[in-house]
Amino acid sequence: xxxxxxxxxxxxxxxxxxxxxxxxxxxxxxxxxxxxxxxxxxxxxxxxxxxxxxxxxxxxxxxxxxxxxxxxxxxxxxxxxxxxxxxxxxxxxxxxxxxxxxxxxxxxxxxxxxxxxxxxxxxxxxxxxxxxxxxxxxxxxxxxxxxxxxxxxxxxxxxxxxxxxxxxxxxxxxxxxxxxxxxxxxxxxxxxxxxxxxxxxxxxxxxxxxxxxxxxxxxxxxxxxxxxxxxxxxxxxxxxxxxxxxxxxxxxxxxxxxxxxxxxxxxxxxxxxxxxxxxxxxxxxxxxxxxx
Length: 292
Hints:
By secondary structure, the protein is α/β, with parallel strands linked by helices. It has two domains: 9-234, Conserved hypothetical protein from pyrococcus furiosus pfu- 392566-001, ParB domain, CATH 3.90.1530.10; 242-285, no CATH class. Helix content is 55%, strand content 9%. It contains 14 helices and seven strands. The strands form two sheets. It has a five-stranded mixed sheet with strand order 1-5-3-4-2. A two-stranded antiparallel ribbon has the order 6-7. A hairpin with a 2-residue loop joins β3 (84-89) and β4.
């Protein structure tokens, strides 16, 4: 199973971070030297900086054909290519570098386990490695690809999912430090202009700006889009903030937490919360009070 290609980078990043959060206490994924193709996951929105391409992350059809030919020329018992670099999230292995090799294996009908190398590092470092590795191979990344890779690292940095200096982003992507600085200014400026402020809490929430091209279009007056993915990202940010602030206390003292929430939000907002939960404050909640 892989994350669908039509997700934006930000939405895909939140999805992977949630998977990582849920599995952090799970059994550590073993680090074998080979894995069956069925266990390899792809998330090209995060680990494939090249723009466009197939959902499995393969961008260059001619290169895939060349790799398939290489496999067909090898003896049946050694039909392997260079190891695919993967990153463990829970008990899943996501392809960091080797999307074309993965596509070639599938197209060649390979059923045996294939060589892999596990990347050890943080989520941000894995994303950087995918960009760095792609910039070094013969399928040279063009300017748009490099800009997109740099933009993703800027977004990770600005949303708290990474912490990179301008020099580090520039080195990983091949763009200039000045370009990285402009991207940071673009991101901050668009969030200040397009970010949504919650009418109840007053907290300002960032919007999903999409790709670098989308961000440039928005800066030129194209506007940002407030869609379901952006709303889901906001919900996840709020959930994480509540968890960090209250932890298990909210579960142990639900009545006190509910009272505090009502005092914070106010009656009007709590009515909307009740409606969202399918309750009626005037009927269901009053009935609960009478039974206490």
